[in-house]
Amino acid sequence: MSDVLMFHFTGIVLIVLIIRFKSFLLRTDKMWSVMFWGVIDTLPHEISHWLVASITGGRPYGFSIIPKKRVSLDGQRYIWDFGSVSAYVAFYNAFLIGLAPLFLLIVAFFVFMNYFNYMPNTWWSILLFYFILYVLIENSIPSAQDIKVAFSQNSWLFYMIIGIVTFLGYKFFDNYTIGSM
């Protein structure tokens, strides 16, 4: 077996160990572990919300990646809030702001396709590759609150109407060229 294949296998093992270790540490409720994983697992997620809110006119006014412990909705247990972005949500940007972390999948795919064009094929580089992919893919999962924001304000309806009008416009004007009248 070549060294490169062994490095890739080790990278996959690393991801499994990170997932297990993270879940163990978060169950212990130690503040240092919550802070460490909160930053790693929250920063790209919240930055994606912030960027999309900025681009779509949401004018973000609050950004936090400091974990906070709060009582769950049923009042039976404590849960962690790892971060938040406050922005002005309207019908035209709620869907995009809420589902902004999904754009991290595009970044992860770009990294996957281009990483080794710029980085050497060594053990540390391969482990870094898998760690970067883990962080991007883990952060790309929208939370329950993200889904609520995305489907508030009838934003999904706004984008569905734009999609239908664009499709119909494309189908209607597909047969016409400038100067053919």
Keywords:
7 helices, 181 residues, two-stranded antiparallel ribbon, 4 strands, flat, mainly alpha
Task: Give me the secondary-structure topology.
Blueprint (H helix, E strand, L loop, with lengths): L2 H26 L2 H25 L6 E3 L3 E4 L6 E4 L2 E3 L7 H5 L4 H16 L4 H17 L4 H7 L4 H19 L8
Antiparallel strand pairs: 1-4, 2-3
Helix pairs in contact: 1-5, 2-5, 4-5
Biggest sheet details = 2 strands, antiparallel
Number of helices: 7
Oligomer: single chain
The structural class is mainly alpha
Uncertain residue ranges = none
Overall mean confidence score, pLDDT: 84
Molecular shape: flat
β-sheet strand percentage? 5-15%
Q: List how many beta strands DSSP finds.
A: 4
Distance between the termini: 67 Å
Strand order of the largest sheet: 1-4
Radius of gyration: 21 Å
Q: How much helix, percentage-wise, in residues? A: 55-70%
Secondary-structure element pattern, one letter each: HHEEEEHHHHH
